[in-house]
Amino acid sequence: MRSRIMMLMAVTADGKIARGGDHFPDWTGSPDKRMFKALTMRAGVVIMGARTFDSLGGPLPGRKHVVLTRHPGRRQPVAGVSFTSDEPDRIAAGLYREGYSQAVLAGGAVANSLFAGAGLIDEIILTVSPRLFGQGPGLFDTILDMELTLEDCHRIDTDTVCLKYKVVSS
């Protein structure tokens, strides 16, 4: 058994998740931030890559953090944060054993690609924000072939759309 993995990401209208690797993730509107907080609090755990974690400036309150890094021993211990180089399947199984039925995967592109490549993403929720960056990382950093089914589509504010997909096969 393993925790269900929900990938939750904000993207620009041109499909970018940031301008670059160190871009502070504060470019979305309040409705997106409220949705992110609600879904991650409900799950209780958020998984992300080290660069994404570093861009936050510290852990988000009230949630366990699993931070993927190639060198977990080089990180200073942080309360509520687990730095790991474990494979995605071990992470998902471990979270389930700890009592988490679901987890939110919150990027970046490398972390998303690792979980997608292992076939561990169960659903994808995207908020499409009315911005264009022109360059920068996308959702994934590798070639994938995932089949999705659109479960829901709605506006979360005047110019921002939320898309919810179920992963059919990966």
- Strands, count: 8
CATH level-4 homologous superfamily: Dihydrofolate Reductase, subunit A
Q: Any idea what the CATH architecture is?
A: 3-Layer(aba) Sandwich
Q: How far is the first residue's CA from the last residue's CA? A: 18 Å
Order of helices and strands, N to C? Answer: EHEHEEHEHEEE
Strand count, sense and closure of the main sheet?
Answer: 8 strands, mixed
Q: Would you state the CATH class? A: Alpha Beta
H/I helix tally: 4
In which range does the helix fraction lie? 10-25%
The whole-number mean of residue pLDDT values reads 94
Number of separate structural domains: 1
Structural overview:
The protein is of the alpha/beta class and 170 residues long. The protein has a single domain, classed as Dihydrofolate Reductase, subunit A, CATH 3.40.430. Helix content is 24%, strand content 31%. It is built from four helices and eight strands. It has helices spanning 30-43, 50-56, 88-97, 109-117; strands spanning 4-12, 45-49, 64-68, 81-84, 102-105, 123-129, 147-155, 161-169. An eight-stranded mixed beta sheet has the order 4-3-2-5-1-6-8-7, with helices on both faces. Strand 7 and strand 8 (161-169) form a beta hairpin. The two termini are 18 Å apart. The model has no long low-confidence stretch (mean pLDDT 94).
Quick summary:
The chain is 24% helix and 31% strand.
What key phrases describe this protein's structure?
170 residues; alpha/beta; Dihydrofolate Reductase, subunit A; eight-stranded mixed beta sheet; 24% helix; 31% strand
